[in-house]
């Protein structure tokens, strides 16, 4: 009989406990909803003030820096020089990345005050570029802009033909010489687009001969073993108004052994030296009176096992026309050669009998490689130096062949 009240009391207690827990949970939920709402229901302005503070906080995190890119996004037929510029207002540039369609990056430099950037060189023609630029304001907040544009397609172009050839080994006197197919009226821009690196490092300077030829050389003959790399970054260079370069090429060559041959027109002898040591002395004949050989330093620019020599091609009338001159090596553009001679009799080492060339004993057809002309031809490479002394003529002009060594270093650089 006494068990029921106790049991009933237990049931009532559980019921009261459940209601208390439900009320507590409801109160917690109500508090959470109120907190998320940002204010009580009794204030109509509370919710509006909360939204305003959030907007102010977002605004305070946005950079005030402004990045500008020219040309505008999507621009076509953009000039290859002077058109690309990146700027920053109310902040400073921290990053500028310009790439072509191949992903190659264009070098450039941000100004000291951080408000501008321009490329270090011209752009290539007919090429799409992308630009990504970032600037920071005084509080370190970043702003960025992205853009793309395409450069012009030129109607008129030029190229440069060059010597020596890529991959060749040449003598110590070989300059890097470029002859352009159009006269250049913007020489600074063209020269800037040609860079030369050497191993070991040596100062190499360019010199213009007229408006269509640019030669590069060091102060003194190259050191044997020097490796030379030339970058012809001419694509997009405006060489003259409306005429653009179209070459983007790398040329590499190596300097071989040091061979310098000295011809004495008075004694009719030539001493061939390698690395300063005489390796052979050869009797020669040079230009006879009235047709004297040039004095000065000359560089072998062409080798021909057999060639025709006609005096009419060098403005000497009908003096000669020899169809099979053997072992010929060109020294000037005007027609001076060192070559085999099978018709001069006993002139070699005794007297001067040529029309300005340097003659060495040979046989018709040049088949005997042991004779002086054959030996000299076989032991010479393009770029070897031949120096003529004591001839009764002026020093050869620096632009007559690859003969810039006849110009002082000071004048060359000027």
Task: Provide a quick synopsis of the model.
The protein has helices at 3-37, 44-60, 187-192, 372-378, 409-413; strands spanning 66-70, 75-78, 85-89, 92-99, 108-110, 116-119, 128-136, 142-151, 156-158, 160-163, 169-170, 176-180, 194-199, 205-208, 213-217, 227-233, 238-240, 243-245, 248-255, 259-264, 269-274, 277-283, 296-299, 302-310, 321-330, 337-341, 358-361, 385-389.
Topology:
Blueprint: H1 3-37, H2 44-60, E1 66-70, E2 75-78, E3 85-89, E4 92-99, E5 108-110, E6 116-119, E7 128-136, E8 142-151, E9 156-158, E10 160-163, E11 169-170, E12 176-180, H3 187-192, E13 194-199, E14 205-208, E15 213-217, E16 227-233, E17 238-240, E18 243-245, E19 248-255, E20 259-264, E21 269-274, E22 277-283, E23 296-299, E24 302-310, E25 321-330, E26 337-341, E27 358-361, H4 372-378, E28 385-389, H5 409-413
Parallel strand pairs: 2-8, 9-18, 11-19, 20-28, 26-27
Antiparallel strand pairs: 1-3, 3-6, 4-7, 5-6, 7-8, 10-12, 12-15, 13-16, 14-15, 16-19, 17-18, 20-21, 21-22, 23-28, 24-25, 25-26
Low-confidence stretches: 1-51
User: CATH topology of the largest domain, anyone?
Assistant: L,D-transpeptidase catalytic domain-like
Ends apart, CA distance between termini: 129 Å
CATH architecture of the largest domain: Beta Barrel
How would a crystallographer describe the biggest sheet?
A: 5 strands, mixed
- The total strand number stands at 28
Q: What is the domain total for the residues?
A: 3
**Broad CATH class of the largest domain:** Mainly Beta
By CATH's scheme, which homologous superfamily of the largest domain applies?
L,D-transpeptidase catalytic domain-like
Could you tell me the radius of gyration in angstroms?
41 Å
Strand order in the largest sheet: 22-21-20-28-23
Shape: elongated
In round numbers, the mean pLDDT is 89
| Count of helix runs | 5
| Helix share, percent | 10-25%
Strand content: 35-45%
- Structural class given helices, strands, pairing? alpha+beta
């Amino acid at each position: 009989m006494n068990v029921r009240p106790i049991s009933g009391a237990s049931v009532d207690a559980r019921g009261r406990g459940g209601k208390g827990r439900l009320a507590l949970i409801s109160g917690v939920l109500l508090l959470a909803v109120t907190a998320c709402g940002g204010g009580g229901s009794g204030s109509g302005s509370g919710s509006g003030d909360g939204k305003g503070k959030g907007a102010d906080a977002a605004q305070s995190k946005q950079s005030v820096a402004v990045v500008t890119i020219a040309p505008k996004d999507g621009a076509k037929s953009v000039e290859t020089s002077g058109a690309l510029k990146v700027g920053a207002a109310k902040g400073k540039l921290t990053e500028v990345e310009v790439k072509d369609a191949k992903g190659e990056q264009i070098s450039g430099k941000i100004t000291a005050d951080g408000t501008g950037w321009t490329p270090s060189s011209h752009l290539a023609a007919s090429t799409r570029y992308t630009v990504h630029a970032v600037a920071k304001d005084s509080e370190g907040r970043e702003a960025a802009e992205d853009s793309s544009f395409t450069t012009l397609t030129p109607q008129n172009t030029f190229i440069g033909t060059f010597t020596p050839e890529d991959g060749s080994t040449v003598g110590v006197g070989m300059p890097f010489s470029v002859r352009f197919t159009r006269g250049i009226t913007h020489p600074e821009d063209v020269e800037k687009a040609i860079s030369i690196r050497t191993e070991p490092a040596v100062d190499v300077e360019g010199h213009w001969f007229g408006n269509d030829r640019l030669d590069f050389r060091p102060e003194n003959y190259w050191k044997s073993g020097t490796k030379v790399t030339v970058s012809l970054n001419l694509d997009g260079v405006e060489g003259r108004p409306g005429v653009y370069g179209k070459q983007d090429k790398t040329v590499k060559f190596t300097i071989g052994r040091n061979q310098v041959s000295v011809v004495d027109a008075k004694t009719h002898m030539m001493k061939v030296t390698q690395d300063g040591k005489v390796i052979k002395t050869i009797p020669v004949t040079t230009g006879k009176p009235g047709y004297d050989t040039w004095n000065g330093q000359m560089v072998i620019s062409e080798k021909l096992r057999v060639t025709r020599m006609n005096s009419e091609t060098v403005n000497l009338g009908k003096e000669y026309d020899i169809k099979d001159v053997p072992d010929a090596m060109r020294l000037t553009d005007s027609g001076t050669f060192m070559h085999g001679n099978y018709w001069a009799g006993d002139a070699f080492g005794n007297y001067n009998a040529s029309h300005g060339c340097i003659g060495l004993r040979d046989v018709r057809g040049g088949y005997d490689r042991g004779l002086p002309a054959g030996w000299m031809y076989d032991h010479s490479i393009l770029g070897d130096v031949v120096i003529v002394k004591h001839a009764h003529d002026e020093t050869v002009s620096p632009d007559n062949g690859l003969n810039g060594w006849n110009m002082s270093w000071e004048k060359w650089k000027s």
